[in-house]
Design a protein that fits this description.
482 residues; Helix Hairpins; 4 domains; 5-stranded antiparallel sheet
Length: 482
Amino acid sequence: MNTLNKKATIHILIVDDDEDDYFILKQYINNIEGQDFVIDWCYNYKEAEEKICEGKYHLYFIDYRLGARTGLQLIQDSIKKNCEEPFILLTGNGNHAIDLMAMESGAVDYLVKNELSKEKLERCIRYSLERANSMKALKTNERKFRNIFERSKDMVFIADEQLRFSELNNASIALLGYERSILLSKSLYDFLDNKMEVAFIKHQLNSSGDVSDKEVEITTKNGEKKQCTLTVSRETDIKGEGYIQGILHDISLLKKTEKDTLLLEKLNVAGRLVRIMAHEVRNPLSNIMLSAEQLERAVDDPEAKTCLAIINRNSNRIGNLISELLNSSRRDPVSVEKKSLQTILDETLEAAIDRIKLRDIALERDYLTEPAWVMADDEKLKIAFLNIIINAVEAVPEKEGKLIVALKKKDTQYVVSIEDNGCGISEENLPQVFEPYFTSKQNGMGLGLASTLNILQSHNASYNVQSSLDKGTVFHLFFNIV
């Protein structure tokens, strides 16, 4: 005969309103060899419920009949109160229906009193304790992995074959912007605009059953585009039913940092080239201008003087262009003070008001009511804002143009938004808007927004640009709150 754990004493509670049945069952149990038992008895439903909740016992034998109530009710009520120890239901007569109800209620076994024996009880107790230990281990692991699931900063989800969500962690709500109840009616595909990405994911799941670290772009509830890496795999549960588990990792900040670093490197390279070019061009240019000045004093011929005037005028223009290039590539030190963003924006708009009125553009301001204090060099920040506003004014249609300047608070930052309903920027050009010498204007030099970027970076401000062709553009500028 297999024996139980010889090292530990097993505490058992018998709940039965018949004392004779209690003594018989106790005798059978005490006759089991090689194991120490401590057996208590309880005949009252309420008292039994209290004892079970104390958690002092390893095992419970519950009679089916307990006066006005049943042992099934006691088992159900105890499990609801997080009792994890095993229950064995006892009944006077064998009944298949009661057997099924016992299992459904949470009992680990079912015994008929008039069929009891020492051997049967030994097997029942051993099986029940082993099963309880296994269930506890499973629940411990479930709690551990559930904790990882819920606390993960990444979106972790379970879905069906069409990637319709059936389970989500809290990070999913934060990433996508929807409440859990709404997300559970959606598919991951609903957040992917790129049809090629959708087709690729479907193909991979059908062919190999998994997708690993696939870069995708999702659109959140508020229309924000976020770069993420997606890992999904097809799995099978214990019932043999298939499901998809996945992780969506937001790499938007990483991508933005990479983009800003690359852009900064480009600006530094451009700055070095400009300084070299300025040095190499200004020396011969100075000689040309000095020579032209000498000749102008020495000659009286009107035609010669006209040619010299052309030389002087174009030499000055070249000199001014060199100065403008140098200014755009130079990151001047800023002198910051505590300033109100509302005041800076209003003064910037005042500087641009003539252009706005001449083109008959509708101007809308939407500011926070309380002062938005930041550490800023207000004169330089006005130049940065003005460059964006002028671009917006030039992009919108005359008399139908609309310019919205907004100031909001988001977490630990103030967000300045400059939005227009102009011609927009194409998707391929959008990443280049702040690059020096990039412009879509016929006579532009591409220095305005490059200068703006220098000013924003000197203020530790970040940015985000969203645009659609023929619909408009919005610049979001983020400043740390003082």
